Amino acid sequence: METIERGSAGSARVAIVGGIHGDEPAGERIVRRLAAELDEEGPGNGTVRLIVANEPALAAGTRYTDIDLNRVFPGDLESDEYERTLAPQITAELDGMDAVLALHTSHSAPPPFAIYSELTESVRRTVTGMPVEYAVDSSGLRSTTMDSVVPHTVSIEVGRQGSEEAAEFGYEACLAFLRAHGALDDEPPTFTETTVVEGREEVPKGGGEPHVYYSNFEAIPREEVFAEDDVYTHRVDEAGIVPILASEDGYEDIFGIYGQVTGVLKPPGEGELGVVSADEPPAEFGED
Ligand SMILES: [Zn+2]
Questions:
Q1: Ligand 1 centroid vs 186 CA: distance in angstroms?
Q2: pTM score
């Protein structure tokens, strides 16, 4: 792990973590670009902490060396597995941070989206302050990811693994994150309403030729098949289900994750903290 400290325009203590997965070079590139662009000292008493997480895996160009880092939080310093010992070191480095952003890329198609496990005011600020249309609430999924263990952490999927677009979009998203928390004052922050999708369950993959018929966040009509192979035919039996991280060849054991749109997250200051139900019909509904 490498930590680079930069100055802040404000009082918040924020962190950006890249290179959690060694086969996702965009995260490290974005962190190093930020390190080069941001001033070492800022006018505020806050801090911007930039972290390159899994250096051995990045050097090898593999997702991990012993075990997936984003599946072993909070980890164990006494473990023989490298990533299990790295997780608590990263957690310690992020102790007391007001906001944390973890960078990821995937094999799945755009659009980029945010992921959080616990909704706090800081998380609301991060999610609505970044240029993403969707945020996945993953509190019902795995509890061993960084965003489920480190307070005020939002993960962001910035685009397709290895693509130039992912590195560019991710950099812009980081600037928006820094502005949202007052750490960067080159321009005012922009907050927008974000659609929240609750992560429901992973969709298992069996074997043989994989087919995926719906794209990320595209509503799958009831009774339609989301994905299939020689082992599984995944027919959706309830309304409002959308795929997350849908991919035919991206993952060994899953086609993606089922999600359900639960509502929207409003910008900071616009009402109580929480997901506002999308059940109510839009305002123009019923008008002539
Ligand atoms: Zn990743």
A1: 29
A2: 0.94
**Sequence-distant (≥ 6) Cβ neighbours of residue 56 within 8 angstroms:** 22, 65, 82
Q: Residue 237 Cα, ligand 1 centroid: separation in angstroms?
A: 30
**Token pair for residue 129?**
């302050």
Instruction: Tell me how far apart the alpha carbons of residues 76 and 179 are, in angstroms, rounded to a whole number.
Output: 34
Amino acid at 168: E
pLDDT in single tens digits along all 288 residues of the chain:
999 999 999 999 999 999 999 999 999 999 999 999 999 999 999 999 999 999 999 999 999 999 999 999 999 999 999 999 999 999 999 999 999 999 999 988 889 999 999 999 999 999 999 999 999 999 999 899 999 999 999 999 999 999 999 999 999 999 999 999 999 999 999 999 999 999 999 999 999 999 999 999 999 999 999 999 999 999 999 999 999 999 998 888 999 999 999 999 999 999 999 999 865 555 554 444
Query: Which two three-digit tokens encode residue 263?
Result: 């509502």
